[in-house]
Amino acid sequence: MKFTCPRETFLQGLQIVQRAVPGKTTLPILSGILLETAQDRLRLVATDLELGIECFIPVQVGEAGSTVLEARFLTDIVRKLPELAIDFRVDAARGQVEIRSGTARYTLHAMAPADFPTLPETDGEKMWDVDQRTLRRMIRETSFAVAADETRPFLTGVLWEVTGEQVRLVATDTSRLALAEVTSANQVQQAQVIIPTKCLAELSRLLEPGGETPVRVTLSGNHVVFSLPEIRFISRLIEGQFPSYQQVIPRSFKTKVELDREAFLGAAERAALLARDGPSIVKANIGGESVGLSAYVPEVGQSEERLSATITGDDCEIAFNTRFLIDVLRVLDSERVTVELTGRHSPGVIRPLDGDGGQYVYVVMPVMLR
Amino acid sequence: MSIAVLSESVINQIAAGEVIERPASVVKELVENALDAGAHRIQVAVERGGIGLVRVTDDGEGIAPGEVELAFARHATSKLRRVEDLWAIRTLGFRGEALPSIAAVARVTLTTRQPGEPLGRRVEVTGGTLERVQDWGAPAGTTVEVRDLFFNTPARRKFLKSESAEAARIAALLTGLAVVHPGVAFSLVSDGRTVLTTTGAGDLRETLAALLGPGAVENLLPIAGEGAGITVSGYAGSAGLTWANRSWELFSVNGRLVEARLLQAATEKAYAGLLPLRRFPVAFLQLTADPGLVDVNVHPAKREVRFRREGELFQVVQRAVAAALERQPLYRPAGPAVSGPPAPRVAEALLPLAEARDGEGPAGPGTTDRPAPESPAAPSRQPLRFLGQLAASYLVGETAEGLVLVDQHAAHERVIFDTLRAGLLAGTPLPVQTLLWPTQVELSPAEAELLTDFLPLLASLGFAVEPFGGRSILLRAVPVLLTGIDLRQVLADLVEEAETSPSSARRAPTALAERLLQRLACRAAVKANQSLSPEEAGALLEQWQTSAQPWTCPHGRPVALRWTLAEIAASFLRR
Ligand SMILES: Nc1ncnc2c1ncn2[C@@H]1O[C@H](COP(=O)(O)OP(=O)(O)OP(=O)(O)O)[C@@H](O)[C@H]1O
Ligand SMILES: [Mg+2]
After folding, report:
1. How many domains would you assign to chain B?
2. What is the CA radius of gyration of chain B?
């Protein structure tokens, strides 16, 4: 195998697929990246067996073939090379690869491409197109709310649900729930699958905030595929029954508070500072024209802050795990948010006001101070 | 049967049963006599666990030739004359019962010479009958040889444990006596093997070093306390120095080695939560009290003592030991990993004790501590600067003294445990996170059964648990500190623990709480192989350092190890 390509292109490709290379593995081949010529392109693949990333870059192929190289060495070397074309040459007999660029020359040991796992065949059974910007926002607004514990794996992923014209991402750890939804025409196929958070996190790094090119989402067997031009993410789905979340989203409220998101976030972060022993809890005192936020920290002290707000409905006092508030206020980008409450025992609902399209709901259970 | 007065030999045999239960009782009585005689050197030799032979040789004042026979008469003593004296006893013996009791159940030869006398005397008594009295040339002092113990009372002999177990009891006893009398040079030879020797130079630390090994002494913390008419001194071993049985919980009252449940309980209370399961502390407590406050005459073998003002005394002792433990270094000396102290012989000799008494667990010293080259007089809680994380499992930090490694899981366990316990003790309920959905938890039969024991505790911690038919439960709320905890796993841990620990200790309410909190803390704490951000690591270290018992995790494992700069320099051969 022989090929030539500009350093820049090659490095970009490597950096994209490298995200699927496992940090630690007992299977040495997985620490490598598969390089394979495909007509006038080079196919790069990495996988940890749960997530696979595939990327095509244009190259000048001298001789067709394939090889597997240690991901870390390869990326480090390519990163240090001058901005020139790179020459690649595989010496299959010796099991070596020679990389040349200008006067520099490296020889790397190659692994056998036959040992590299093949990515699952996917033939699109169900397909949707979502624009990059929207998908990126939806991932950001939901994936933080997944559960960390491995005992309920179906809560460690994000629900991908399509009903009628709605495409929804939902995540919960049973204390709080985040739901982001877009309406788009032509979405006729129903689906409900759970996608590993890692796949979404890595994908969203590649999605451009202003990108308008759609991402094609394909379900196939127990895999999901995200396709961008020249890039494919293939991830295994998480098995299990996602809880029926609709019933926990309150349909009504008794108190509604509208306030500045950044001011709210700042106050919550300051309250959290006070907590030295374990998780921080913040008490909200809602009445009149303002919301009083006080950190509840036995033995350490009190912090008290008042935020001006527009309040409709009953006065109310309620406590929350401060982190659950900070998490959501950080990922939203609207200027103002609303908080809907129904007494101190019922879930609170946070929504962005004037957000950039789509629907968003965050439901959070209160903390009881007895 | 008609009534008849018992013959003297029968009376003596019955009385002997109370004083002499086993070979160790013989050793105790003979050594106490030697101590009363002002001996500076006491040599003990035993064969076959003391059943074959006990020989005690001293360099004390000896017995006047004319009084030697009298020493074997019941209630013949040189130490007590009037009843009033009983309240101010300074000698170890006072009843005049030991020698006749021993002589009633063995073959005894006593050889003695007073320093001033040209010639000594030798008496032989068998089964209480005086066989022979002769003049005898001998070094100044007294030697008593006791052979064939219980030869004439086979029933008693059957109650003895194995020879090695009896030998272990003797070793434990002599260890105690040697510690209480550091001014006397002791030696114990068992079946020709020297088990222990002390120099008798009078220094307690040195004596402890001879018995425990020099490394262990580095881990002894001086005790000082006062109250309830009693002063307490001595040494308490740091949490890293443990033993498989109670043989190193030693107590003396007014110079007398005693066994006292009260003192044992008070000492162990001070160590609560610091020692691994089924390990015991190393501690020696010297109590000095007005003789009027202690009654030594409650047990035929004088093993036990009784105190006035018991409640207060308990507090004083517990506080004194706890205060000593306060001063143990926060960062446990790790020392060069190459060599530990050689296990002293006495440890080996004590081995069979574990089988005989506790019936479980390996015996011997558990010095998980290695000795530091210099004594750890360093400040115990120096501030720690976080440097980084090692293997995603240990927090690496530096103090003015050197390098510190903190086990992140153990430290976090300690923090959570303390918070949960403080909440339980103060009765201030912890904040509780309610859940969007009740979580259904399926339990195994064993877990379901165990759960009933723990339900009230779980409820007071803030868990909202409801039965849900069969062996399922519904969890509606969880303490905020424990959100995300897998309660079923905690119950499974408790079931497993219950299967391996004796049931008696298990059901006590305090034990229940302690065990539950331990398991909860363990499951909720960060694990090994979990990378922490510098902020998280810093917060954890800060919380941990404010704990009242930061030295160990709730199971008694160490939390922090330190290497002094001097040790590091030495390892690099810089000195
Ligand atoms: N090793 C010894 N050196 C000097 N005198 C001894 C020695 N052993 C025994 N005696 C003398 O023999 C007496 C009797 O000893 P014995 O142990 O029977 O009684 P005791 O020590 O007075 O009281 P107790 O029964 O409480 O031990 C002692 O009072 C002491 O005078
Ligand atoms: Mg005596």
Report:
1. 3
2. 28
Question: What are the sequence ranges of the domains in chain A?
Answer: 2-115, 126-246, 250-364
- Within-domain flag for B105: yes
Q: How far is CA B206 from the centre of its chain?
A: 19
Residues B400 and B514 in one domain: yes
Q: What is the pTM of this model?
A: 0.73
* CATH of region A250-364: 3.10.150.10
Using the mean position of ligand 2's atoms as its centre, give its distance from the Cα of residue A219 in Å: 92
Question: Any idea how long chain B is?
Answer: 575
Whether B489 and A151 lie within 8 Å, measured CB to CB = yes
Pairing of strands A214-220, A126-131: antiparallel
CA distances from B358 to A37, B158, B246, B286, B355 (A): 72, 20, 9, 25, 6
Does any ligand 1 atom lie closer than 6 A to the CB of residue B68? no
Q: How many residues belong to chain A?
A: 370
Calculate how close chain A gets to B198, using CA atoms only, in Å.
Answer: 50
The CATH superfamily holding the domain A2-115 is: DNA Polymerase III, subunit A, domain 2 (3.10.150.10)
Q: Which of B418-422, B423-427, B502-506 has the highest mean pLDDT?
A: B418-422
In sequence order, which ranges of B181-290 are alpha helices (DSSP H)? 204-212, 214-217, 261-270
Q: Do both B342 and B399 map to the same domain? A: no
Query: Are B429 and B317 part of one and the same domain?
Result: no
- Asked if residue B571 belongs to a domain, the reply is no
Residue B377 lies in a domain: no
SS3 label, residue A81: coil
Distance of CA A96 from the midpoint of ligand 2 (Å):
90
Which of the two residues, B489 and A54, has the higher pLDDT score?
A54
In the reported structure, the alpha carbon of residue B79 is separated from the centroid of ligand 2 by a whole-number distance in angstroms of 9
Write the pLDDT tens digit of every residue in B96-108: 889 999 999 999 9
Q: Where are the alpha helices (DSSP H) in B375-508?
A: 408-426, 445-461, 487-500, 503-506
Contact partners, residue B282, CB within 8 Å, separation at least 6: B212, B216, B220, B236, B237, B241, B242, B243, B248, B249
Cβ proximity of A55 and A10 under 8 Å: no
| CB contact at 8 A, A247 and A179 | no
**Portion 407-436 of B in contact with A at CB < 8 A:** 415-416, 419, 428-429, 431-436
Interface test with B, best of A277, A280, A297, A318 (most B CBs within 10 A): A277
pLDDT per residue over A171-216, tens digit each?
A: 999 999 999 999 876 666 789 999 999 999 999 999 988 877 899 9
The CATH superfamily holding the domain A126-246 is: DNA Polymerase III, subunit A, domain 2 (3.10.150.10)
ipTM of the complex: 0.85
Query: Do the Cβ atoms of A267 and A244 come closer than 8 Å?
Result: no
Nearest ligand for residue B34 CA: 1
Q: Which residues of B touch A282 (CB under 8 A)?
A: none
Which of B35, B44, B67, B99 should be mutated for ligand 1, with most atoms under 8 A from CB?
B99
Whether pLDDT at B357 is above 60: no
Asked if A89 and A36 touch (Cβ cutoff 8 Å), the reply is no
Of the ligands numbered here, which is closest to the C-alpha atom of B80?
1
Tell me which residue has tokens 């939902």.
A170
Which DSSP symbol is given to B526?
P
Q: What CATH number did the domain enclosing B83 receive?
A: 3.30.565.10
